[in-house]
From TrEMBL:
Family to which the UniProt record says this protein belongs: Belongs to the ATP11 family.
UniProt feature, compositional bias: Basic and acidic residues: 70-80
Record GO cellular component, one term: mitochondrion
Protein name: ATP11 domain-containing protein
Major location (coarse): mitochondrion
Keywords of the record: Mitochondrion, Transit peptide
InterPro entries assigned: ATP11
GO BP term, pick one: mitochondrial proton-transporting ATP synthase complex assembly
Ranges that cross the membrane: none
Source domain of life: Eukaryota
Listed PANTHER family: ATP SYNTHASE MITOCHONDRIAL F1 COMPLEX ASSEMBLY FACTOR 1 (PTHR13126:SF0), CHAPERONE ATP11 (PTHR13126)
Length: 355
């Protein structure tokens, strides 16, 4: 499926010439002032040739000089007025409705030399239009189920067809709005992930805690079958796009906002109103070369696939409130409103997120 082709506009600038031309007086030839050139002494240098050529043309030497001068001025004027050649933009190669992929059955990823699509706003989120061709998606209507299948197939083709390093899901709009409303009030939390107990204490359970941060990045425009360049876009009715960062608590304590998140979830709401679905994309941070192995990593990534899935499911457990009096809801509320009463022991009771 093809990448979104953005049309470009050509702007022409003009400037008033009245002041520039006002300095030319009628007592001097305007062409000499507008196109100054080096004066040639025809009489002393080319007299014989001029006489011979004038005789061949049946005119006088003075008439020949005037003709040559006019021809020279005409050439200069023509060269200045000649427009630059227009080079038509290269047509994009045909591809399919999901954005850049390595597989030839879908589409080819843009080369490193091609300029990336830049945002007009200040959002740090990669636009969904960089992944899916939203115009084509609307032009050839897709159901929410078809969009979900397309989304899963795209991410399943990542990392050489293994899907490693990525998570994806299609969230019903109603479910997302419930979680987002809770996250707007309580944007941070701590989630425990089970770990192997150290030697000598196998009878005890070990955990690694992750600090969770929600952030909202405004409402994306509703996709349209075609883009009207000179029409003011309608205000978007989509809910806000959001991101969720997961950072090891110990690292967050040491580096605060400079700490590296191990997992980033993005909730794309571009198709919320049109398809009643929010597309979730999870990206696991790759391990830097030479970095020490982490307890949760698998060599290539800072977090293994199973732990990433556990963290994503924990968001549903603590932010999708079916009952405000449920213990998970009380824990999140206490964490923000009464932090001194928050007990880690109560949190560990909910460490089994698959239940």
């Amino acid at each position: 499926m093809s990448m979104l082709l953005k049309q470009s506009s050509r702007y022409w600038a003009t400037c008033p010439a009245s002041r520039s031309l006002a300095r030319f007086s009628t007592s001097h030839g305007w062409r000499e002032e507008l196109y100054p050139s080096k004066r040639i002494d025809y009489e002393s240098k080319y007299l014989e040739k001029l006489q011979k050529r004038a005789t061949e043309q049946g005119i006088s030497v003075e008439q020949l000089k005037a003709r040559l001068k006019d021809q020279e001025m005409a050439k200069r004027k023509e060269s200045l007025a000649k427009p630059l050649p227009y080079q038509a933009p290269k047509a994009p190669e045909p591809t399919s409705a999901a954005g850049p992929q390595q597989s030839s059955s879908t589409t080819t990823a843009p080369s490193a030399s091609s300029s990336p699509i830049s945002r007009k706003d200040s959002s740090p989120v990669k636009p969904l239009s960089n992944i899916l061709n939203l115009e084509k998606l609307v032009q050839t209507p897709h159901t929410a189920h078809q969009v979900e299948l397309l989304w899963r197939a795209y991410h399943g083709s990542r990392s050489g067809g293994t899907g490693r390093g990525y998570l994806c899901a299609a969230i019903p709009l109603e479910t997302y709005e419930k979680m987002a409303s809770v996250a707007a009030k309580y944007p941070s939390f701590v989630i425990p992930v089970p770990r192997e107990a150290p030697e000598g204490s196998e009878d005890q359970r070990a955990y690694e805690f992750y600090f969770v941060e929600w952030a909202f990045h405004g409402s994306p425009p509703e996709p349209a079958a075609s883009v009207e360049l000179f029409t003011k876009p309608k205000p978007s009715t989509n809910p806000q796009t959001s991101t969720i960062l997961f950072t090891p608590l110990q690292e967050y304590k040491l580096r605060n906002s400079f700490a590296t998140p191990y997992l980033a979830l993005t909730n794309y709401t571009d198709l919320a109103r049109s398809h009643d679905v929010v597309l979730l994309r999870g990206e696991i941070t790759p391990s830097s070369s030479g970095a020490a192995a982490t307890p949760s990593g698998d060599g290539r990534y800072m977090l293994n696939q199973q732990d990433a899935q556990l963290l994503a499911m924990a968001i549903q457990k603590f932010y999708l409130w079916t009952d405000e009096q449920a213990e998970s809801a009380k824990l999140l509320r206490t964490f923000h409103e009464n932090p001194t009463e928050f007990k880690w022991e109560d949190l560990l009771k909910h460490a089994d997120f698959s239940a």
